[in-house]
Please model this.
Amino acid sequence: MTKISFVKRPFNIRTDASAQEIARQGIHPLMAKLGAQRGLTSAADFDYSLARLLAPQGMKNCQEAAKLLLTAIEKNEKLLVVADYDCDGATGCAVLVRGLRMMGAQVDYIVPNRFTHGYGLSPDLVAETIDHPRLGKPDWLITVDNGIASVDGIAKANELGMRVLVTDHHLPGPYLPAAELIVNPNQPGCPFPSKSIAGVGVALYVLLATRALLRQKLPSAADIALQNLLDLVALGTVADVVALDHNNRILVNAGLGRIRSGKACAGIRALFEVANKQWREASSSDLGFSIAPRINAAGRLQDIASGIECLLCDDPIKASHLAEQLGQVNAQRRELQEQMQNQADATLAAQTHQQIDNKVIVAFDEAWHEGLVGLVAGRLKEAHYKPCIAFAPSAADPQWLKGSGRSVNGVNLRDFLDLVTKTAPGLSSSEMPRFGGHAMAAGLTLHRDALQKFTEISQLVAEQSISPTLLLPTKFLDLSLEGHQLNIAMVHLLESQPWGAGFSEPLFRGEFEIVSQQLLQGKHSKLKLIALPKGVKPQTLNGIFFNHTDSMAGSVNLAFRLIRDNYHGPNSVQIMIESII
Ligand SMILES: [Mn+2]
Model:
């Protein structure tokens, strides 16, 4: 385990001025400080009303896509949504299918299978669209969360007489596909300011533009309840770990609000239930750590279609049945992943000193599952704080390995893989035919015989290109909290914000006196503590410190989160300790 160093978030003259200004405009002073430290400058940055969403007109081709969709709906043409096998793609698919149905479209979906098709609108998948079991041959293919890189697949669709509308958010490659239209805030020439919108967000924007256009002809179109889709938008946005800029926070906040007031779709409600989470208190971390993994598990181990069906379902009984199944697949995923992780840990523990000093981890095991290598790479990266690429044999053809990598800040993994192919002796396209991704995550296909070569070149490239300072993990610490602030009112205040990637949940610091410590299951510590300095009426607080067994006594400085403690009653709070600092 690499030791994390904690760094206080800067609080200087500028942040202080912003904090005072935000507080003057009516935001709680503590929240104003937390916001200022995250770069916010006015109370408007905390205004999450839907009216503040960036307008669809600002997204290149969004209006044109609306025109094209309305014409297709008027002509009763057949629309086929082409989804992706992760939670962003699955929620995006459900949003488009539901939204287009509300507008009277004849629409269905298809989704590639990770094992047989691979990612995106491939020529093989296009070939399957022509005799779609429910729709027949579609007039239109509408991609969601994919398509920007599907040059060959879209050429094939054109050849077969289907028109393609691409909606995506991924970075484009050197060539754009020959689609009828591309809506993607990351395509050249798109002025849309929120570049971190998820695939599901782009899908919503296309629908918003379509409804706006329809309203010009048909005033009653105002009743088309696209707001009903915001729970799905929030789920996909959080699941894709895109940065929660103001626009994304509006979307996530609105979705969480709907979930908390019992207005989520039947599938999401059922998923909260099987995950044993309270939808009344839904948070972005529930979406990210409890709901999204259940949808993703289907795409990783089987077929994401069962996840999409759950999100499309309106019948609570059927939804809970589907959610139950997803829960089982997720349990299976967890077990397999744990086995893979234990193997990886054992292999790494047996390494020589020289290997330990390597700046990149390449891991492979014959028994690993290709759908889970990304999760294992992510865990190894967390534990060792260096880029990690994990491989498993491809189920379809074990001559090939499927790899997935996760990186640390400052090392662009896609560029890293590009360098690996180009550094002598290099990897030919017959050894490494496919790779792609972005800064923090990437995927690749590698010939089994080239693994040794790949490992050696990777170590060489890492040695030459990764500065050691990038491999020192740091975490930001927010303000220190005092005893009188550790209460349910503070938890409510914290819960009012849609925290997440790029808008990270506060990690507080504070000094405490340890009153008692008790071990839980031999691996966690349950504590009683008193905040220092002791006030007039010092309160004994409950604390939990996961994966910590060393004895604690006297006064300690802690990095902690303040959370609810439903177990001890509705107004109880708990100190969740992240580290001793
Ligand atoms: Mn996505």
The radius of gyration is 25 Å. The chain has a mean pLDDT of 94.
